[in-house]
Amino acid sequence: MTERTSWSELRDELGVDRAHPSYDAARIAFELGVEVRTLREERGWSQTELATRAGMTQSAMARFEAGGTVPTLPVLERIAGALGMRLAVELRPAS
């Protein structure tokens, strides 16, 4: 199993510009991917098993877990359902 890198470590390694318009999308995609991977591993499932349950390909799931794609809400709904979860989107005050 590969060791995960935190968003801040990955950001610094890649030299990501925090002012760039795509910064927040990349951060969110990375964090979602980490969360889904954690939930999948807790269940003892392979990427293929989760992908099949979510109606996706294994390669699409791998890209998602790596933070390589910004998913649509319908895709997030399918992944959440496959994990036996409910997707919840919330707006919170900025800190």
TrEMBL record:
<dbReference type="InterPro" id="IPR050807">
    <property type="entry name" value="TransReg_Diox_bact_type"/>
</dbReference>
<feature type="domain" description="HTH cro/C1-type">
    <location>
        <begin position="36"/>
        <end position="91"/>
    </location>
</feature>
<dbReference type="GO" id="GO:0003677">
    <property type="term" value="F:DNA binding"/>
</dbReference>
<dbReference type="Pfam" id="PF13560">
    <property type="entry name" value="HTH_31"/>
</dbReference>
<dbReference type="GO" id="GO:0005829">
    <property type="term" value="C:cytosol"/>
</dbReference>
<dbReference type="InterPro" id="IPR001387">
    <property type="entry name" value="Cro/C1-type_HTH"/>
</dbReference>
<keyword id="KW-0238">DNA-binding</keyword>
<protein>
    <submittedName>
        <fullName>Helix-turn-helix protein</fullName>
    </submittedName>
</protein>
<dbReference type="GO" id="GO:0003700">
    <property type="term" value="F:DNA-binding transcription factor activity"/>
</dbReference>
<dbReference type="InterPro" id="IPR010982">
    <property type="entry name" value="Lambda_DNA-bd_dom_sf"/>
</dbReference>
